[in-house]
Amino acid sequence: MKSPQYGHPAHRERARGTGPCRLCLRTFVVGEEDRLLFTYQPVSDPDSLPAPGPVFIHAEPCQRYDGAALPPDFRTLPVVVEGYGEGGWLLFQEPAVDETPETVLERAFAVPDVAYAHLRNGEAGCFMARVEPDEGI
Ligand SMILES: [Zn+2]
User: How far is the CA of 127 from the centre of ligand 1 (A)?
Assistant: First the structure.
């Protein structure tokens, strides 16, 4: 019940928003599922500026999402795509408005030196997922 990176206490509550869960990447069932809130630092590059923020995960055990496509529940959420280069520099940032996140991701990965992307919730601003480009692109 502590943030794995900072040691701050985690908070357990009944879901009041859809999330998503940062482990299984499913949205929460509001008013039915319990979730844990804690501080998470999603930037793994040691030379980059840290960007800690709040994340939610299911309070009950769930499976880590590791698919080749975006999880279906992301279709219901406002997504902002951020493209990062080596060293963790932000090189691209666009919301997916009137188009799919995949379309915006294609634009992000077309920017020279973008090595990976983060998806953020466009309303809450919190980190949702990291996306690696397809091999061979
Ligand atoms: Zn989950």
Answer: 14
